[in-house]
Amino acid sequence: MKVPANLATKPMETHRRFLTFSGASVALSAVLFLCLGWHVYVVRKADAAFRLQSEQLTREIALLTDQREQLDRFFLLPENTRLHDRASFINSIIDSQSFNWTRMFLDLERVLPGGVRVINIEPRQANGQAAAVKLTVGAVSEAAKQDFLEALERSDAFSHVELTNVRVATPVPGGDQIVLELTVIYSRA
Question: How many whole angstroms separate alpha carbon 22 and alpha carbon 87?
């Protein structure tokens, strides 16, 4: 018959828990190391692609700058400058003829209330769709003047109304009591 007996002076200790936790921490560290390594690889690859794209864009910018300088030199030639001036002149004539002046005068007529008359009008083409108009207007009373200014402000066709001068005229029976000078922008799309 055998009797189990432990004759050792120290009982046997198991290091299983230490080995388990240290193995798990080594595995976790290895996974973390691989993730960080993959991240560094992706970042370096993206940086290389960014540098390549940046160099390509720099080359394109240099090429376009060179082309622009060549075109500037071409357009600064005397014969091309004369041609450009002539084309600008012809375009301004076409713009002024394409602007509907009759419609502008009809819109102005709709805005004028009773007791107000236009003394002087100086339209000037601003661009293809608008005209700067300097008006000198006579009104028989303060109420007629206010009605005219309010009608201009309410109008869809006239904008940027600037009153530049107001004069009280010498009283003449049946004549203008107030003379207004103003500028407006007429645009009708």
Answer: 85
